[in-house]
Design goal:
With 199 residues, this protein is an all-alpha fold. The protein contains nine helices and two strands; from the N terminus they run ααααααααββα. 28% of the residues are buried.
Length: 199
Amino acid sequence: MSHTELPAASTVADAAKLILDGIKGDREFDAFKAASLEYSEDWQCFTGFPVVQRWNLEADAPALFEEGLRALALKAAVYELTADDRTAEIPIAVPVDEMTHAMLTQAQLLVRIAEARGISIIHQTNQEHTDYRAGGYTHDCYRLAWGEPPARYWLDHEEVVRRRGVLAGLYESIGMGRSGREHALDFAAASRGRRAVPR
């Protein structure tokens, strides 16, 4: 993290609410939302969304879209108050961060909305922090802006690590190594009716 001092949580909350209202009030917001949710066919992720309990893409996507918007608004607010992109990369919960990736993919729409509203969208993978914890700075900012964040999506870092361990074990059992980063599946064998997963 940068050495720039973090703004008061109440100041960030006030700025984030204005930013979020501005984004939602943009004439292209509906198109942006539709495009982000349509991204569902490309939402294959082994360690982001699946850490949500009983994850269901269609049921969870609308609520998670709102959380992604709020996360982007919080980061934009910190940047607006500090002009420091490293400081603006405040901790975000893993499933919420994953949702922002789907939103960032709608580049032309998001850029136009941000420019029209005079805000900066902050995201750089090698600077982001997904070590969100209840009671931390992000939680304080969120709570002052919109009330308590939904615990279903705003999972503490330690719980995400635990759930990823569970997922990794399940993936290994079907031949998926390193949580989906490699596998030893034999697609040709499967098409011939043989076992695709090596014994």
